[in-house]
Structure formats: structure tokens, C-alpha cells
């Protein structure tokens, strides 16, 4: 039988500081009513100064190891960290996280696909296992968007939150609960400016001359992104379901990127799945980008929404533009 990546552990970690809509309403010209009605978000977590993406990633990674019955120093071959907010532009954050987890012989690298980063990471991790290059891969999605939000931009400031989620994937077979059964990924770089940090890279170098301070922050043209996000996640989901031979009626849970509750409802309409089968936790955590899907998985698993063998469809959309979907069966693991 072919080798397949199987989900064996799930961990989640949120920084302690809760930021309510009311708190943001004191800082920006906004309101709890606007934020809830336009996005569904009630609160988010922001990391206090001094807490980095790597710190959140370490906590989530450690919990995923524990959920899989492993611990610090476990025999992990590869650590992949999906993030938009690495600790440093150079080096990658994953080797530091791997070292703190005492995974001293693991290959470790970051991947950058913004809010699609976790699904892209699943594809990389699963392919590494399927090719026989690794027995166990730890994949972490971690973000501290609070560090890149423009304090003068009320729209992005109310949407994004910090957090980390992680999964441990092991080598297994496609008939096992937890098996990742297919991927459908895509990108459209011609629309890169819709979600962008303009400065600080090689295009607009901060070492050459001081950039416009606004260009150092995260920017998003939300209205233009909205319809594309729904369409791309919908098309990618449908194409993947067709490829693996699952009807939408056979999908027990749709776990979409938690960008906006209205996007999740529109996506449900587009793919014809009822809202009861759509997992949401955006109300509590906001949009946590690459951490969004593992945090939503951990949230639903902690509420015992998933049964062993349930069919899950995961789909994400983000800057790049990028998008991607994957399907798996639920292994019955307990998140840590
Ligand atoms: N409080 C009050 N009013 C606000 C706020 C706020 N926080 N933010 C914007 N507004 C105002 C705008 O100024 C505008 O006012 P105007 O009509 O007088 O000009 C009005 O509200 C409507 O603004 P829109 O931008 O049209 O608001 P919209 O309903 O589109 O919601 C949002 C904005 C939430 C950003 C939405 O467009 C969205 O979710 N877009 C998709 C985001 C997404 O999917 N991103 C991809 C993944 S994330 C990633 O990759 C990092």
C-alpha cells in the first residue's frame, strides 16, 4: 500500500492577552457592532511585547508532540513553520523552534504563503513523508500579526489576532483514520499588491533609505479580496472533492481559513454545504493567518465535534495571492 501522511497530534496555543472589540473601539473610530456585523469577530489575542512568533510556535509545537504521545527530543525528521511574521527576516524561525524543542537532528525551515501557509505546509510535510524522506514531520502555523498592524489602520487592526497551532504528521497508509488524501493548491502573483507589506524586502529596501513608515506595515485591500477569496476556496474545494471522489454531502466538516465569518458563510453557499458543518472560531481569535486552520481544528476537536473517520475538508486563501485545499479523515486524536 502507498505511504501516506497521517495526522497523529494536534496542539494549539494563544497568548494570554485578550483584546476585546470594546478595547479597540477606544483606540479607533470603530465599534463592537461594526466589527461583529462585518467580520463576526468578538475578541482576539495579541502577544505582549517581548513574545515572538517563535515563542508561540514552541508552545504549540510542544503541545502537538504531547498530543501524539511524544515529548521534547522526540525523533522528528523535519520541522516546518508556516508564518508571515517570522522572528527575523534572516534566519528562518523554524530551526530555533526545533532547537528549543530539542529536535536537534531535524531539518527545519519556514514557508511563506500568508494565510494559505498551513495548507501549503501540509502539502510539503505530506510530500516529504510520501517520498520517504521523513517518518515524522512537525508542522506549525504561528503568527504575531499584532507586530505588523498599522496603528493607523482600523480595518486591519480589528481583524487580525496572534496565535499558533501545530500538527504532528507520521508515515502511515491511506486507509487509516487521519490520512491526508489529496491537495489542490494555486496562486496568482499578478494580484500580489492586494495583501502586502510593501517595504523591508529587496524591492523597497529599508537599508537603502528609510521607507515611508506606512510601507513597513501589513496592508490589505479587503473589499477586492473578499469575492476572490470565496471563489478561489470554493473552486479549489470542488476540484479536490471531484479528484478524490467525495461528494460535498459526504463531507462532515468544512474547516476554512477564518478570515471573516461572512466569507465562511458565502463559501458554504458556493460549495453547497450547510452552515452547521462549517467550523468557526473566528469569533474568539480573529484572523490568525497561518495559525487559523490548526487553531480551528483544535477548537472543534476540544468540543468533541469530530468523530473518528469523519471526513474533513480544509481550505485556505491568502496573500500572494495563494489558496489551497486538502481532505483527510479524522483520527480521533485529543488536542493538547
Ligand atoms: N470600523 C468602522 N468602519 C470601518 C472599519 C472599522 N474597523 N473598517 C472599515 N470601515 C468602513 C470603511 O471606511 C467604509 O466606509 P465608507 O463606506 O464610508 O467608505 C465601510 O466601513 C465599508 O468598508 P469596506 O472595506 O467596504 O468593508 P467590508 O464590508 O468589505 O469589510 C473587511 C472589510 C472586513 C476587510 C472585508 O472586506 C474582508 O474581510 N475582506 C477579505 C479579507 C480576506 O479574506 N483576506 C484574505 C485572507 S487574510 C491574509 O491573507 C493575510
TrEMBL record:
Keyword flag Transmembrane helix: no
Pfam families xref list: ACP_syn_III, ACP_syn_III_C
Catalytic residue positions: 115, 257, 287
Record field: catalytic activity: (2S)-2-methylbutanoyl-CoA + malonyl-[ACP] + H(+) = (4S)-4-methyl-3-oxohexanoyl-[ACP] + CO2 + CoA; 2-methylpropanoyl-CoA + malonyl-[ACP] + H(+) = 4-methyl-3-oxopentanoyl-[ACP] + CO2 + CoA; malonyl-[ACP] + acetyl-CoA + H(+) = 3-oxobutanoyl-[ACP] + CO2 + CoA; 3-methylbutanoyl-CoA + malonyl-[ACP] + H(+) = 5-methyl-3-oxohexanoyl-[ACP] + CO2 + CoA
Pathway annotation from the record: Lipid metabolism; fatty acid biosynthesis
GO molecular function, one term: beta-ketoacyl-acyl-carrier-protein synthase III activity
GO cellular component: cytoplasm
Span list, region ACP-binding: 258-262
Alphabetized UniProt keyword annotations: Acyltransferase, Cytoplasm, Fatty acid biosynthesis, Fatty acid metabolism, Lipid biosynthesis, Lipid metabolism, Multifunctional enzyme, Transferase
Domain notes: The last Arg residue of the ACP-binding site is essential for the weak association between ACP/AcpP and FabH.
Known function: Catalyzes the condensation reaction of fatty acid synthesis by the addition to an acyl acceptor of two carbons from malonyl-ACP. Catalyzes the first condensation reaction which initiates fatty acid synthesis and may therefore play a role in governing the total rate of fatty acid production. Possesses both acetoacetyl-ACP synthase and acetyl transacylase activities. Its substrate specificity determines the biosynthesis of branched-chain and/or straight-chain of fatty acids.
Name this protein carries in UniProt: Beta-ketoacyl-[acyl-carrier-protein] synthase III
Species of provenance: Thermobifida halotolerans
Taxonomic lineage: Bacteria, Bacillati, Actinomycetota, Actinomycetes, Streptosporangiales
Gene: fabH
